[in-house]
Automatic annotation (TrEMBL):
Gene3D superfamilies: Acetylglutamate kinase-like. Pathway: Pyrimidine metabolism; CTP biosynthesis via de novo pathway; UDP from UMP (UMPK route): step 1/1. Belongs to the UMP kinase family. This is Uridylate kinase. Catalyzes the reversible phosphorylation of UMP to UDP. It is an enzyme of class 2 (transferase). HAMAP family: PyrH_B (MF_01220_B). Its EC number is 2.7.4.22. The gene is pyrH. Allosterically activated by GTP. Inhibited by UTP. It comes from Andreesenia angusta.
């Protein structure tokens, strides 16, 4: 087995990553495939905390007429649906998990308690953070930055669907777009690169949290990044 490069990571899975080719909702086979790779890094004794997005159901800012805060709460509830699906897939293959939500819903999951989350990780459980930060006007990328700082994760692994790193322009529009092997947070802000929102980028930058942006279309990439293979874009302070 390859040696892992990290002891504690935050894996940020966008909601889209769980939708497979359907583009909406949850594709069980896709979730199972991702769970399998997460279990592999767990077996390498890497402590894994996951922040799940919700874009496969709803994005607060896309609402037309709805009150923004209400729309964001819908988005946060969407992330919780994803968290439960991922938990189910992981538990099915024998991985111990806990879901912690930033909005109280004690019948379905634990509340977010930082010290408890760390304890779960130390016991080898995968912790899935749901309901974002619990606050409207934020994203799950910002949540990943926040939780990474709180639990002292060494790195955020930002898994993206349909793209395998950070490019100087949109590779779907510009076929000659160039992929960065490494980048600084300030470059993301200065160049307005759309890989993460500016709140998330600033939080990572201010707290010197390294980030690796990589593609999740092949879920085996999770193991590749954890073992230090250069497949995406490294972002540092
Ligand atoms: N959201 C929020 N506060 C948070 C995290 C998420 O209000 O701290 C809402 C927001 O509406 C967002 C939605 O939840 O659009 C889904 O999260 P996100 O768009 O980050 O998901 P992803 O794009 O990663 O699938």
């Amino acid at each position: 087995m390859d040696k892992p490069k990290f002891k504690r990571v935050i894996l940020k899975l966008s909601g889209e990553a769980l939708a497979g080719d359907k583009g909406f909702g949850i594709d069980e086979e896709t979730v199972d495939n991702i769970a399998k790779e997460i279990s592999k890094i767990g077996e390498m004794d890497v402590q894994v905390a996951i922040v799940v997005g919700g874009g496969n159901f709803w994005r607060g800012r896309s609402a037309q007429r709805m009150d923004r805060a209400t729309s964001d709460y819908i988005g946060m509830l969407g992330t919780t649906i994803n968290a439960l699906a991922l938990q189910d897939a992981l538990e099915n293959i024998g991985v111990d998990t806990r879901v912690q939500t930033a909005i109280g819903m004690q019948e379905v999951a634990e509340p977010y308690i930082r010290r408890k989350a760390i304890r779960h990780l130390q016991k080898g459980r995968v912790v899935i953070f749901a309901a974002g930060s619990g606050n409207p006007y934020f994203s799950t990328d910002t949540t990943a930055a926040l939780r990474a700082a709180e639990i002292e994760a060494e790195v955020i692994l930002l898994a993206k669907k349909g793209v395998d790193g950070v490019y100087d322009s949109d590779p779907k529009i510009n076929p000659s777009a160039k992929k960065f092997e490494s980048l600084r947070y300030i470059d993301i802000l200065n160049r307005g690169l759309g890989i993460m929102d500016s709140t998330a980028t600033s939080l990572c930058m201010d707290n010197s949290i390294p980030l690796i942006v990589f593609g999740i279309d092949d879920p085996e990439n999770i193991v590749r990044v954890v073992t230090g293979e250069q497949i995406g874009t490294d972002v540092k302070g």
